[in-house]
Design brief:
- The chain is α/β, with parallel strands linked by helices.
- 47% of the residues lie in helices and 9% in strands.
- It contains 23 helices and 13 strands.
- The protein has helices at 18-32, 45-52, 57-62, 91-103, 119-127, 158-163, 169-185, 196-213, 216-220, 249-256, 281-286, 291-310, 318-352, 355-368, 375-386, 413-427, 433-447, 451-460, 467-471, 481-488, 510-518, 527-530, 533-537, and strands spanning 10-11, 14-15, 39-43, 65-70, 82-87, 108-113, 134-138, 144-147, 150-152, 191-194, 230-233, 259-260, 263-264.
- The strands form five sheets. It has a five-stranded parallel sheet with strand order 4-3-5-6-7.
- It is globular and about 65 Å long.
Length: 563
């Protein structure tokens, strides 16, 4: 991403995303203003977090929103003239909307599908007999700025849709989101990607850019000065990293509580929102710090805040007193943020000090180092299965849960599958088939026969490949491609605070290393190695494709589908 100071919306690290946030806010407000008088806003739970990152309730209230409800409860008997629904185009959710519309006759109803209006959504409402009773539209909440330099699609189900269900409609949503960014900051000079779905996305972008190039809107867009390139990496190229435990403050907060929409899932003990984005000065200072150092840093910030409070005793003149009063609001906000993050850090600390956490981390580090589990680690896996609990808390999924799971809490299927998927992915053909079959049978026995489907689905998407499939992998020159890449791309790095591996206690995410290869980062890229990378990366994706096709010679750079 390039730096440019020529425009008001481009900063030292790239585009400032405030412009995108204002665009999303204005689109939402335009929808709200179509209904006069007091109105209720009914939110799909999967949309509410993204919405909170874009607009606050005070702004909604200025445009007539009196109450906000989750879709499960609906607006009920709220004294409002209209109801605005923001929901994903999901059959179950839209049927629930239809029930509430029929029960709320006499009100004006607006149903906005997020992130886009679909024929399926129209058909569900039509079959329910309410299509003529609602105003149907879309809210393009498809590129949500969660931080100064982070934009999220907020579509957690896309991996399953693509790799399990074969539903490619999500690629169209991604393409629309990227086109929106290009509409604000200009065309990406080039697009590079790894994997089949990256290739499909490049083709979609190429087509959309060609369509724009034939009209006045396309003529107005030039190459972006904010971006050097758009890089798209299929999740299939790096399925290991999401299964590992990060050891930074942000990573462990996500591990223990979950982070949803730029905030700690569930909030604090009283349910108040705890920011987990760069807008919070305290969080910004500690998010990337190794958790072992967070306590000392929070202590230093607390002492500095105390010193700032004590400075009021040195104020002698009216000007000095006015200066302190002017800073008081910021000091109080920092005080509240410190208090919240100290409480969060204490809960995380209790989790990290448990034997359970240490055992899980030890297993992860053993596997990424290429070693097999020792008898003690296998005994831990057996113990996890023995303590199986199908209702155990899963961070980031059970967002209504206010408290983190206790260290001694029964073990969830989520935890068991993380361990087994890591074993299958890293050990590959070295994992014995009888061990794989034994764990399969134990999971079914512990959690229920219906999870046979769960295990088969994991195998289908490549997260839990059986050893027999790994041995018969076509087109691979290596018995265990991930083990080979660990050495070739230097994925295992010990005691190097300057390498990205510090975040995972010595493991560098493969997706990050791919970017370093692309940018020729000296950490992994040497002249002797450059000619080997095309063949080196081939085992991780189905094919390597490259194409260059400028849309218009004057305004658009080449599009390349792979590297």
């Amino acid at each position: 991403m390039s730096a440019s100071d020529s425009g008001t919306d481009v900063g030292e690290r790239g585009p400032r995303l405030q412009q995108l946030k204002e665009l999303l806010r204005s689109e939402l407000i335009a929808i709200l203003d179509t209904i006069r008088g007091a109105k209720a806003l009914v939110l799909d739970r999967d949309v509410s977090a993204a919405l909170s990152a874009v607009v606050d309730f005070a702004a909604l209230k200025e445009h007539g929103v009196e109450k906000m409800f989750l879709l499960e409860t609906g607006a009920g008997d709220a004294p409002v003239q209209g109801v605005v629904y923001l929901v994903q185009p999901n059959v179950r959710k839209l049927r629930l909307v239809a029930e509430q519309v029929r029960a709320g006759s006499g009100r004006e109803h607006s149903v906005q599908l997020v992130p886009r209006r679909t024929l399926l959504g129209e058909r569900v409402l039509e079959e329910a007999g309410v299509l003529g009773d609602v105003t149907l539209g879309e809210l393009r909440l498809d590129a949500v700025p969660l931080d100064d330099d982070v934009v999220s699609l907020e579509q957690p189900g896309m991996f399953a849709a693509l790799y399990l269900d074969g539903d490619f409609s999500g690629i169209q949503s991604v393409a629309r989101a990227l086109m929106r960014l290009q509409g604000l900051w200009g065309f990406f000079p080039r697009i590079v990607g790894k994997g089949d779905y990256a290739q499909m996305l490049a083709h979609s972008l190429e087509r959309m850019r060609a369509e724009l190039g034939t009209g006045s809107a396309g003529d107005a867009l030039a190459l972006s000065s904010a971006f050097d390139a758009a890089v798209v990496v299929d999740r299939a190229a790096d399925v290991v990293t999401p299964l590992l435990t990060q050891l930074t403050y942000e990573g462990l907060v996500s591990e223990v509580f979950g982070i949803v929409g730029g905030a700690v899932a569930g909030g604090d003990a009283k349910g108040a929102r705890v920011a987990a984005s760069g807008d919070d000065a305290v969080y910004r200072a500690i998010r990337d710090v190794g958790f072992a150092d967070v306590g000392a840093l929070l202590g230093a910030m607390t002492r500095q805040l105390q010193t700032s409070y004590e400075s009021r005793h040195q104020a002698r003149t009216v000007q000095e007193i006015r200066s302190f009063v002017g800073r008081l609001g910021g000091l109080q906000a920092e005080h509240q943020a410190l208090k919240a993050h100290v409480a969060v850090a204490e809960a995380v600390l209790r989790r990290t000090q448990s034997d359970d956490f240490g055992a899980l981390l030890d297993i992860e580090q053993t596997l990424v180092a290429g070693a097999d589990l020792d008898p003690e680690q296998r005994a831990y896996v057996d113990r996890v299965l023995a303590l199986a609990d199908t209702h155990a808390y899963v961070p980031g999924v059970d967002t209504e849960r206010r408290d983190p799971p206790a260290p001694a809490a029964p073990n969830s299927l989520h935890k068991v599958l993380r361990i087994l998927c890591l074993c299958a992915l890293w050990r590959g053909p070295a994992l014995k088939q009888k061990t794989y079959d034994a764990w399969y049978d134990e999971i079914v026995a512990a959690f229920g026969a219906h999870h046979t489907i769960t295990l088969d689905n994991l195998a289908r998407v490549g997260l839990l490949p059986p050893p027999s499939a790994a041995r018969s992998q076509p087109g691979s020159a290596h018995a265990n491609p991930r083990g080979f890449l660990r050495k070739a791309l230097n994925l295992a790095v010990a005691d190097d605070a300057d390498d990205v591996a510090y975040a995972y206690a010595g493991y560098a995410p493969l997706s990050v290393r791919l970017l370093q290869v692309l940018t020729q980062d000296p950490a992994v890229h040497t002249p002797a190695a450059s000619s080997r990378y095309a063949a080196l990366l081939r085992p991780l994706a189905d094919r390597l494709a490259t194409q260059t096709q400028p849309v218009t010679p004057q305004s658009v750079g080449g599009v390349r589908g792979g590297w």
